[in-house]
Structure to design on (440 residues):
């Protein structure tokens, strides 16, 4: 397919190489200006604004200020609307995700004797309220419900709620409700987009405000999170889907093309590149794409073709493995597949990727739907400083210190010296002999 973007990486200018690193959400200035009045409307009008935006943006005519929350009856009905095979797949994924995240859960408290009579440690407690954002615009995502709800429940968050856009008939995706209940979350609101972030940040008559919101979303959701970051903890930056498929010369390019389409089909704002130093692999991938597209739905072909023929996707032919490694680390992808018969040979050279899937039998599909590790991941190169969503995103850490009477003199002496040096007289007094006058 000659229309697929193809880059001879070594021949590109520095400016062209830098352009390959850009994602669709790189410049949110226009979106941010459109989001500002949405946030203000929710802040001042509450549920009425949410219902209006559901009608205007989601075309959900049956949503009103009085029915923004999913009822128990709607939860119960959802199980009758979803094939048992889908329910079983959701339960299978939840079991794996729970097993993985239970291993992540930190011990409630630890302490170590730093010096004789002086103890220090950490205590972990759940965040008291968290909202889970589950997108819907280009499909339905019970998998996102699984990935966000399970670690939150494992962490012990006492107040959990899901916000997700309604369908035109005013319903919430049935599989999403099934996943929510099986994961342990019974509070779901029919609200999405920037207005959902605002509702969770400020609260409305129906929606209780939360301390934090997590989950992937559109550029509108990302923009709202940026604007409201001073009001609510917006968690790791998770925007439109992105993936790199790294392939060496031991694999067939048709396999690389197959996996290249996985994240590209999420939407036209996705990013997806095949990165290889093998011209054979690159050419085989190009040749295989039409056959793969012939087996996909028209909508997903449209999305993935837009990505792979545009400025945020395609095939990158490097001049060497070293150049491939360098590009992967510079791109810092959300999802990375290492396609090779010996993937561990390459793993040590990759430092900047949030999810790394190894070998020919670990496509992003398996990672997305329930291998166990979390598939809510940082996008837009934030993998350089953030990791995947985890149990630790739902707990907070407190430092614990305890000094005995026997341990006090040694620590107090050094603290007194530094307090005087830094000019803090009260600090110094608190560790002086004066203290003993009041200790019982």
């Amino acid at each position: 397919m000659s229309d697929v973007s193809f880059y001879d990486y070594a021949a590109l200018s520095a400016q062209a190489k830098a352009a390959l690193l850009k994602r669709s959400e790189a410049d949110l200035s226009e979106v941010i200006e459109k989001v500002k009045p949405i946030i203000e409307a929710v802040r001042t009008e509450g549920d009425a604004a949410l219902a209006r935006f559901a009608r205007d943006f989601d075309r959900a005519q049956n949503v009103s200020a009085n029915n923004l929350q999913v009822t128990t009856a709607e939860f119960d009905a959802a199980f009758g609307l979803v094939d048992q095979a889908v329910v079983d797949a959701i339960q299978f994924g939840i079991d794996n995700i729970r097993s993985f995240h239970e291993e992540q859960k930190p011990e409630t408290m630890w302490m170590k004797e730093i010096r004789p009579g002086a103890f220090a440690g950490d205590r972990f407690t759940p965040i008291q309220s968290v909202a889970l954002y589950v997108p819907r615009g280009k499909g339905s995502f019970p998998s996102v419900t699984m990935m966000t709800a399970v670690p939150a429940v494992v962490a012990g968050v006492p107040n959990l709620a899901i916000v997700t856009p309604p369908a035109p008939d005013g319903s919430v995706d049935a599989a999403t409700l099934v996943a929510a209940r099986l994961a342990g979350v019974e509070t779901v609101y029919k609200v999405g987009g920037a207005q959902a972030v605002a509702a969770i940040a400020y609260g409305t008559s129906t929606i209780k405000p939360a301390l934090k919101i997590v989950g992937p979303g559109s550029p509108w959701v990302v923009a709202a999170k940026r604007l409201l970051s001073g009001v609510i903890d917006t968690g790791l930056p998770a925007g439109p889907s992105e993936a790199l498929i790294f392939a060496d010369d031991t694999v067939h390019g048709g396999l690389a093309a197959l996996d290249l389409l996985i994240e590209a089909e999420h939407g036209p704002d996705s990013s997806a590149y095949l990165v290889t130093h093998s011209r054979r692999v690159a050419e085989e991938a190009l040749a295989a794409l039409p056959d793969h597209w012939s087996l996909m739905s028209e909508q997903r072909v449209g999305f993935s073709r837009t990505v792979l023929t545009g400025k945020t996707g395609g095939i990158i032919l490097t001049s060497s493995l070293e150049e491939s490694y360098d590009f992967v680390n510079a791109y810092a992808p959300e999802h990375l597949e290492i396609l090779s018969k010996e993937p561990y040979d390459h793993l040590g050279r990759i430092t900047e990727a949030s999810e790394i899937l190894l070998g020919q039998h670990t496509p992003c599909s398996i990672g997305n739907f329930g291998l166990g590790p979390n598939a809510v991941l940082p996008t837009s190169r934030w993998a350089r400083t953030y990791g995947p969503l985890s149990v630790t995103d739902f707990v907070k850490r407190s430092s614990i210190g305890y000094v005995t009477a026997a341990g006090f003199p040694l620590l107090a002496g050094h603290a007194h010296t530094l307090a005087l040096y830094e000019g803090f007289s009260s600090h110094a007094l608190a560790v002086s002999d004066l203290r003993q006058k009041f200790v019982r």
Observations:
- The mean pLDDT is 96.
